């Protein structure tokens, strides 16, 4: 705690899972990567040294990076990537935040293995707003592919079709015994009867929303995305890539072994990795060969179970942690999100077309200079500020798609004045098929003030918004064939990425950026970049 400098070496290593082995990119040789512990108010310095053949960048997912977008990490948005044999020091201060977050590579598909927990403890002497658990454990959910993930996405881009799904899910790096490899051990969580444990759950998967449950035990949810919620008890939680959830488990059985399980949530007819990862909650004093109690995972399309969790989330909204929901909206935006199809003469498997994704019909094209650099140094020709605040054509978003499925390419940003209040309605479309999209906004937390199925109704739906204690997060699932409304205050100058956190959709172009202008005050402008900022 206090100021700390950490060194992250980006290196490859061999790892074996599912009874076969392959080379993976890691931080310091670890999968999942090391947990970064800090305290609210700390300044963190992480020197990232790139020893692999890929360009690299690291994102501190959910850290607001007030005025320090240079440390945010998305390649070509806030920085040029760290090239092979180069290094860069991420330098940021954690202001007004505490809780569980994650860090991950933000370039190519390296996030598959380059990720880890980022635990921000409250300031010294500041208690949690719930009874202190006996102990705390980081639990990272992710995926494992038998093949190289860069090859998986490159193959899909060449053919124009969807990439393969993973071969198994993982809990703290291990799938546990699965039919493809019954002998492999899973993660073991040792507990003592009568004690309480806080699990800091993180979904670091590339492409799958996951259900998580523990046989024979209820979960008391106390925090999501590093914001406190009104505690509630539930059997099963749903967690999308990029999201975090703290749950308290009371070890109220006397002994035994109980399975933790992570299984897919997908409410659209789209292929998923259907292999459930398991780990074991093991009471002290229980023999290691004792039988494990399993719980049946929810079916993958168990939307009601997912909604039961999502609809229970409310900001704690206490005196100490008030929900500061913007009441008056300066910029009211309506973004359609979803998939489309563009011509691709060389795409043989796609019959001359490729799947793309878009926001308001714009498929975002990655620039070759970082947007924040272009903005700060006034480099012309890198981006345009004409990102549409509304869809170019209206249609029945959740019905059959329009006749023309193609999208427009562009590197467009939506410009906001400093401190403007913003509402964005994110509307899923059924252009190819309705599908849930976990949308992540960099640089801000937002309040999820409304949600519904079907087409958003701008007259009727706002009357039902929760402006008192809506959940505050940085990544929100837009329901398949439905919408969510989010609100935030643009009090962080810089360029901030917003994208679907399913990596395949980001790759296809479901991404855009907000450009927030400097304010007039002394602490309302982007700080100058560090001297070692990578160049493109
Ligand atoms: Cu966790 Cu832009 O990502």
TrEMBL record:
Coiled-coil regions listed in the entry: none
Catalytic class of the enzyme: oxidoreductase
Primary localization class, coarse: secreted
Listed cofactors: Cu cation
TM region(s), chain numbering: none
One MF term in the entry's GO annotations: copper ion binding
Gene Ontology BP terms: lignin catabolic process
Annotated compartments: Secreted, Extracellular space, Apoplast
Bound cofactor: record note: Binds 4 Cu cations per monomer.
Source superkingdom: Eukaryota
Any one GO cellular component localisation term in the record: apoplast
Keyword Repeat (UniProt): yes
NCBIfam families: laccase
Role according to the record: Lignin degradation and detoxification of lignin-derived products.
Identification of the protein by name: Laccase
């Amino acid at each position: 705690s206090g100021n700390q400098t950490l060194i992250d070496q980006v290196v490859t290593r061999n790892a074996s899972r599912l009874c076969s082995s392959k080379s993976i990119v890691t931080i310091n040789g670890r999968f999942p990567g090391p947990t970064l512990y800090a305290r609210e108010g700390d300044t963190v310095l992480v020197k990232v040294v790139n020893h692999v053949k890929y360009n690299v960048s690291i994102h501190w997912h959910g850290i607001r990076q007030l005025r320090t977008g240079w440390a945010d990490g998305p390649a070509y948005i806030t920085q040029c990537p760290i090239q092979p044999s180069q290094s860069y020091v991420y330098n940021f201060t954690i202001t007004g935040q505490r809780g569980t977050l994650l860090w991950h590579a933000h370039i190519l598909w390296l996030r598959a293995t380059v990720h880890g927990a980022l635990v921000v403890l409250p300031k010294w002497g500041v208690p949690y707003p719930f009874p202190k658990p006996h102990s705390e454990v980081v639990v990272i959910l992710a995926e494992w592919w038998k093949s190289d993930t860069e090859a998986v996405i490159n193959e899909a881009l060449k053919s124009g079709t969807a990439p393969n799904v993973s071969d198994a899910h993982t809990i703290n790096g291990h799938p546990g015994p699965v039919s493809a490899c019954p002998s492999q051990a899973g993660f073991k969580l040792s507990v003592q009867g009568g004690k309480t444990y806080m699990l800091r759950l993180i979904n670091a998967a590339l492409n799958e929303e996951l259900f998580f449950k523990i046989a024979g035990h209820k979960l008391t949810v106390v925090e999501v995305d590093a914001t406190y919620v009104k505690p509630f008890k539930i059997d099963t939680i749903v967690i999308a890539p990029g999201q975090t959830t703290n749950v308290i488990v009371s070890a109220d059985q006397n002994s035994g072994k109980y399975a933790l399980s992570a299984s897919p949530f997908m409410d659209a007819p789209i292929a998923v990795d259907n292999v459930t990862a398991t780990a074991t909650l093991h009471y002290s004093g229980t023999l290691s060969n004792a039988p494990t109690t399993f719980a049946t995972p929810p079916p993958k399309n168990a939307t009601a179970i997912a909604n039961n969790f999502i609809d229970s989330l409310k900001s704690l909204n206490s005196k100490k942690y008030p929900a500061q929901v913007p009441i008056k909206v300066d910029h009211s935006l309506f973004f359609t999100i979803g998939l489309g199809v563009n011509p691709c003469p060389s795409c043989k498997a796609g019959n001359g077309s490729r799947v793309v994704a878009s926001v308001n019909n714009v498929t975002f094209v990655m620039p070759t200079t970082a947007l924040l650099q272009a903005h700060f140094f006034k480099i012309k020709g890198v981006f345009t500020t004409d990102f549409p605040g509304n869809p170019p054509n209206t249609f029945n978003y959740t019905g059959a798609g329009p006749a023309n499925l193609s999208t427009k390419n562009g590197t467009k940003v939506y410009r906001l004045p400093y401190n403007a209040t913003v509402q964005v309605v994110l509307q899923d479309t059924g252009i190819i098929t309705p599908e849930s999209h976990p949308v992540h906004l960099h640089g801000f937390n937002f309040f999820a003030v409304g949600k519904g199925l079907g087409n958003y109704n701008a007259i009727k739906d706002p009357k039902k918004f929760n402006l008192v204690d809506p959940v505050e997060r940085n990544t929100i699932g837009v329901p398949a064939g439905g919408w969510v409304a989010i609100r935030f205050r643009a009090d962080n100058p810089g360029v901030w990425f917003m994208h679907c956190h399913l990596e395949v959709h980001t790759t296809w172009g479901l991404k855009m950026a907000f450009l927030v202008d400097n304010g007039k005050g002394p602490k309302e402008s982007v700080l100058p970049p560090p001297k070692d900022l990578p160049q493109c």
